[in-house]
Amino acid sequence: MSGSSLDVAVVGAGVVGLAIARELARRGARVAVFERSGIGSGASGVQPGGVRRQWGTPIACRLAGESADFYAEADEHLRPSVSLGFRRCGYLFLAHGEETLARLTANVGVQNKAGVPSRIVTASEAAELVPGLGVEGIFGGAWCAEDGYFDRPQGVVEAFATGLDIRIQDVLSLDELDAGSVVVAAGAETPRLVPGLPIVREDRYLFYSEPIAERLLEPLVISAERHFAAKQLGNGRVLASDLAARGDEAQQPQWRAHVKAMVEELLPVLTYVSFPLFVRGEYDTTPDHQPILGQVDEGVYVAAGFSGHGFMIAPAVARILADVVLDGESDPVLAVLDAGRFADNRLVPEPQLV
After folding, report:
1. In terms of domains, do 47 and 191 share one?
2. How far apart are CA 200 and CA 208, in angstroms?
3. In this structure, are 100 and 234 located in the same domain?
């Protein structure tokens, strides 16, 4: 590495790229982040700041657990000028049928083995956890009280960026970078620089209310069967989403109508909340909805394809990539989430998505 101007070049200034660069720099590496637009200008710029431990595969639970421990002490680790305000509000995954309840029960088994204090709850228990929840037709749910949200998610992204050498440059080829190693963490744009990776862009859409002083909904409530999720954020805005919304934004009226119908069915406490703000985001998805991590060529590493959970697992990914890039230490995760798993039919499908 010493013959290059940089030890490591990181492409992408989203939360994952920034977290990796921060960890590399913390360990003494000469590192720069290359970004064509600006800090958090892609998927990281619109993520609402959720951190959860509830997943359906051991590897996802492990990455989420390590990262959740980091985030629980984010102010101490990242030293922001203003507290980032992590709140353990809980996530409630609802089941509207026996099949979904069985899947959530299996997932809770995986989580408990990984040390996650999640549990299955009855419909009546769910109503106690979420006052005002409409429980008609609900068979139960999965709950973890340690899941939570940041009051200032963009502050987290900015805190990871503090002190880093960030260069605004549209990298068209990795050959442009004078560095001993390169880490590509460019989200859905990653295949442009590392051809052949099965990462595709998937649009996601969110509705937000104006800030509301009254606290109406603390936990995040998710119904995969109803394609719906909602949560009141720290700034008072209520977030709601039609989880099936894809394609042309001209379908916004249909998505808004679906959100309204789900509010009336599941969260009538939000009936009179309007959602004037409509925001487009994106996921960089893989066929199994797990990231691609590790070395893909000599001196070239990838951290992309997070399928919507890059923010949640960025601290663990940063530690794992820094270990392998700087010290040659290969975490067992890299043998599971490597790029070769798709050709080898070693996919690790993640069943608990939002």
Report:
1. yes
2. 26
3. yes
